[in-house]
Amino acid sequence: MKPITLFYLRDCPFCKKALAYIDELKKQEAYRDIEIEMIEESEQAELADRYDYYYVPTFYADGEKLHEGGIYKNEVEDILKKCTVET
């Protein structure tokens, strides 16, 4: 499984939805063991500045940006599915 890096802001409504979708999806066996490093952008600004994105939530895996900005549950699930594939 590929670990995911997620940039978010605590008060962002899109981020809150994304985090709720992740919590819901991680209850499923297929996604339970996916490692997600969650980086609160305002608390780790120096780290966030090393990545190329403008909107949150933003998902990365293996240095590749998978999604940026507002998100729906099916899009979060697609990201998790992509990261369950062994490389």
Mind explaining what this structure looks like?
With 87 residues, the chain is an alpha+beta fold. It has 3 helices and 4 strands. It has helices spanning 13-25, 45-48, 73-84; strands at 4-8, 36-40, 58-61, 64-68. Strands 2-1-3-4 form a 4-stranded mixed sheet. The radius of gyration is 12 Å and the shape is globular.
SS content category = alpha+beta
Strand content: 15-25%
How many separate helices?
A: 3
Total beta strand runs = 4
Summarize the biggest pleated sheet: 4 strands, mixed
Radius of gyration: 12 Å
Q: How are the strands ordered across the major sheet?
A: 2-1-3-4
SSE ordering: EHEHEEH
Distance between the termini: 8 Å
Helical content, roughly?
25-40%
| Uncertain runs | none
Mean pLDDT: 95
Q: Indicate the overall shape.
A: globular
Tell me the layout of helices and strands.
Elements: E1 4-8, H1 13-25, E2 36-40, H2 45-48, E3 58-61, E4 64-68, H3 73-84
In short:
The protein has 87 residues and is α+β, with helices and mostly antiparallel strands.
What labels describe this entry?
single chain; four-stranded mixed sheet; 4 strands; globular
